[in-house]
Amino acid sequence: MKTIMKRRRLEAKTDYLFRRKLLVSNKPRMVVRKTNRYIISEYVISKEAKDSVTLLTNSRELLKHGWPETFAGSLKSIPASYLTGFLMGKKILEKDLEVPIMDFGMNRTIHKTKLFAFVKGLIDAGVEINCDEKTFPEEERIEGKNLKEDFSKQFKTIKSKIGKQ
What we know:
Blueprint: H1 7-10, H2 16-24, E1 29-34, E2 39-47, E3 50-58, H3 78-94, E4 101-103, H4 114-125, H5 139-143, H6 152-163
Helix pairs in contact: 3-4, 3-6
């Protein structure tokens, strides 16, 4: 008898083997997704295979912390990803939550990209996640020195505002 693949697996949305391993671990997950406009992160707790989102942060919140309106179109960039991770890390520490497992989903995990900039932001905020330093983007790219306009001054002010929370 021929087995039929599950719909979400056919659509490349869910890797069921990996999801099962995450659920068996009984640890909370840090789900990170990148869209065409934003970086979205969720702190998810699973009980009996039912997910509940405890914390939610996306890069739009950076506008409240001083992200310039002229750079509003770049809320998916590496600096925005790092600052979103930094903001999420501060929220996790503020609520005294357990250290999560990273869940990138079906996104490709290529080193030195937005996803690893997010992880670097979490680690710099104080969340203890094990990750190799070689996977993170260079400091120049994280601070936005490689952009058309030098973003490093705005980056430092936004980071200090988030850090004071």
